[in-house]
Design a protein that fits this description.
By secondary structure, the protein is an alpha+beta fold. It contains three helices and four strands. It has one domain (15-32, 39-123).
């Protein structure tokens, strides 16, 4: 009788990112304040991209590990909606696994002119 070797299944790690999220509407409003008020849908779409640049730069100056990602919600009231995320840490790489200290998070919030704290989000991207 031959003995079978049992190999445990390897579970896929949930990929998570930690950072500040910005909704499409927040970025449009920020763009209208900085670049001018308009109702043109095409211009508003450009405001979203143009708004993330200065926000990213403010964050990157204080925390060099900052990256940009898109977060998609797959459950809850915002199901299938997407937000931009200024990512400060993740569980994908050892180099970026450590979030910034609390004092730095407070400076980042001040630089970004927001009051909410960064949060962990499920990451489905590459």
């Amino acid at each position: 009788m031959q003995q079978r070797r049992v190999v445990a299944k390897r579970r896929a790690q949930r990929r998570m990112i930690y950072g500040f999220t910005f909704s499409h509407q927040e970025l449009v409003e920020w763009g209208q304040q900085c670049f001018g008020d308009t109702d043109d849908k095409e211009v508003l779409r450009h405001y979203v991209r143009r708004s993330m640049g200065p926000l990213f730069t403010r964050c990157y100056r204080l925390w060099r590990r900052t990256t940009r990602h898109v977060v998609t919600y797959y459950s809850g009231p915002r199901r299938h909606e997407e937000d931009w995320c200024l990512t400060l840490a993740d569980n994908i790489s050892r180099d970026t696994a450590t979030p910034p200290p609390r004092e730095l998070i407070d400076k980042l919030k001040e630089a970004l002119e927001i009051t909410r704290d960064p949060e962990w989000h499920r990451f489905y991207g590459d």
